[in-house]
Amino acid sequence: MGKPTSADLKLGLATGPVLFACQQFPEMNAMIMRRFRLPGDVDRARQYVLQSDGVQQTTYLAQRYCHEAVREISKLRPSPERDALIQLSEIVLTRDK
């Protein structure tokens, strides 16, 4: 979602796509627990993420939260600040980096 492929895995981080992929590939649990430190862990985890619907599920979840945020922000009285918050919510979903 806007970051180089595997960047978070190389840092030992389990992001949304990884956690959703783990539901489909439980063998990822061990890799997550050891923070993808063994040789081949990052590549194997990346393959599992690509084979799963983890990215799609993460995107859907982000969209749900952003739409809910916009709905709540829209209840505020009109102002440049309110408009900026709504715009920020939309940027979060469409950013490249």
TrEMBL record:
Domain of life of the native organism: Eukaryota
Molecular function via GO: metal ion binding; prenyltransferase activity
GO CC annotation, single: mitochondrion
Cofactor(s) needed: Mg(2+)
PROSITE patterns with a match to the protein in the record: PROKAR_LIPOPROTEIN (PS51257)
InterPro entries listed in its UniProt record: Isoprenoid_synthase_dom_sf (IPR008949)
Single GO BP term: ubiquinone biosynthetic process
UniProt keyword terms in alphabetical order: Isoprene biosynthesis, Magnesium, Metal-binding, Transferase
Leader sequence residues: none
Protein family (similarity comment): Belongs to the FPP/GGPP synthase family.
Name of the molecule in the record: Decaprenyl diphosphate synthase subunit 1
Organism this protein belongs to: Ursus americanus
